[in-house]
Specification:
By secondary structure, the chain is of the alpha/beta class. It has helices at 26-36, 65-68, 84-94, 108-111, 116-122, 147-153, 174-197, 207-213, 218-225, 259-268, 283-288, 290-301, 306-316, 326-331, 333-337, 374-380; strands at 17-20, 40-45, 59-60, 63-64, 74-78, 99-102, 127-132, 202-206, 242-245, 252-255, 320-322, 341-344, 347-350. It folds into two domains: 17-214 and 354-388, Rossmann fold (3-Layer(aba) Sandwich), CATH 3.40.50.10540; 242-328, formyl-coa transferase, domain 3 (2-Layer Sandwich). The chain has a six-stranded parallel beta sheet with strand order 5-2-1-6-7-8, with helices on both faces. A three-stranded antiparallel beta sheet has the order 9-10-11, with helices on one face. A two-stranded antiparallel ribbon has the order 3-4.
């Protein structure tokens, strides 16, 4: 396996101490982003382990790919925090931490005497980030949240799918991932402000808020027109032609955003006069006559090889791309050139999309085994693991 040694280079967040007590996806993804950029992230798992360890197949050892995908660069301990000694140990770990990430059920920390007010009083410089489904109050306050359910409740599913089909869940857990990214943004903002005030603060990132925030341009369209947005398949609600088109081989997605690009598209396809057709002279007119335009483009593209015509269009300045499968993306030389596939000593992961010129992301630790670093982490802080043996599981409970 991967050599478990820190990289010699210091990332942008080197020196930042993070306690990540979150599970599943949004919180762990947030923690991994911070860890990739140099933060020392300590993942705390409950005695039964993060449930995503079992979300497979596929598995590598006893960890599913789902867990592996969002937990690299972290050190791992397990604490039974339902017991007073476990809560005391958590508090000791927070004493020298900069950031605390958690997604406990609303009210859990309060029952442990570690609510917002208590944490602020005991650890005034701590940035406490809570990830939840809906927040602590309001009509849905404290209600548990799951990506797919919030995709439904936030309206995302209502605009995803074919026009004559049923609402569809998006193929990736987009709300969980964006919630994690919003948590990263909030944490970094709070740390920036702490540099001025010397004070930490509470950061909240919820699935519901994140889902609603993604509804662009559907919400702006609704605010202005008061018409409820509908499903339009691969079509864009505001731009035309912006859709998937069949070719002789595989589908091609055209993303034509202005009149110049449309004129170029028509020229490359051998029909330059279409650009001056009064039905297609502007984006608004193309939207009005989008069905006729689609029929014309389908007829023109069906004789072309997808890769060949897409390259010709791209070379001419028309945004487009072949609709590819995951294996094709992984095999693409550009994916590797951009550092988006990480291969180190038997570990393969997805690279960081955030590129910094002087302090780039680094990949230093494999996703950890359960409680792998318990003794190391505690002894660094002058804590004898034997003093807390009753709340330090060494194997996940079944």
């Amino acid at each position: 396996m991967w050599n478990d040694k820190p990289d010699a280079r210091a990332g942008a967040l080197a020196g930042l101490r993070v306690i990540d007590a979150s599970r599943v996806l949004g919180g762990p993804f947030c923690g991994q982003v911070l860890a990739d950029h140099g933060a020392d992230v300590i993942k705390i798992e409950p005695p039964m382990g993060d449930e995503t360890r079992g979300w497979g197949p596929p598995f590598a050892g006893d960890a599913a790919s789902y867990f592996i995908g969002v937990n690299r660069n972290k050190r791992d301990i397990s604490i039974d925090m339902t017991q007073p000694a476990g809560q005391e140990l958590l508090a000791r770990l927070l004493a020298d931490a900069d950031v605390f990430i958690e997604n406990f059920k609303i009210g859990t920390l309060e029952r442990w005497g570690m609510g917002q007010d208590s944490l602020r009083e005991r650890f005034p410089r701590l940035v406490h980030c809570r990830i939840s489904g809906f927040g602590a109050d309001g009509p849905y306050g404290a209600q548990p949240g799951y990506d797919a359910a919030v995709q439904a409740m936030s309206g995302l599913m209502s605009v995803n799918g074919e026009a004559d089909g049923q609402p569809l869940r998006m193929g990736v857990p987009v709300i969980d991932l964006v919630t994690g990214l919003n948590a990263v943004i909030g944490i970094l903002m709070a740390l920036q402000e702490r540099g001025r005030s010397g004070q930490g603060q509470f950061v909240e990132s919820t699935l519901y808020d994140s889902g609603v925030s993604l509804l662009h341009p559907q919400l702006p369209n609704f605010y202005l027109s008061e018409k409820v947005p509908q499903r339009v398949g691969n079509r864009h609600p505001n731009i035309c032609p912006y859709d998937s088109f069949e070719t002789r081989t595989t589908p091609l997605f055209l993303a034509v955003g202005n009149n110049r690009q449309f004129a170029t598209l028509c020229k490359v396809l051998g029909r330059p006069e279409l650009a001056s057709d009064e039905r297609y002279a502007s984006n608004a007119l193309r939207n009005k006559h989008r069905d006729d335009l689609r029929d014309t483009l389908v007829a023109l593209l069906k004789a072309h090889d997808c890769i060949e015509i897409s390259q010709a269009l791209i070379n001419a300045g028309v945004p487009c791309g072949p609709v590819r499968t995951i294996d094709q993306v992984v095999a693409d030389p550009h994916t590797h050139h951009r550092g988006m596939i990480v291969d180190i000593d038997g570990y393969r992961g997805t690279g960081s999309p955030v590129k910094l010129s002087r302090t780039p992301a680094t990949y230093r630790r494999a996703p950890p085994a359960f409680a792998q670093h318990t003794d190391e982490v505690l002894r660094e802080r002058g804590i004898d693991p034997d003093d807390y043996a009753a709340v330090l599981p060494r194997q996940p409970a079944v």
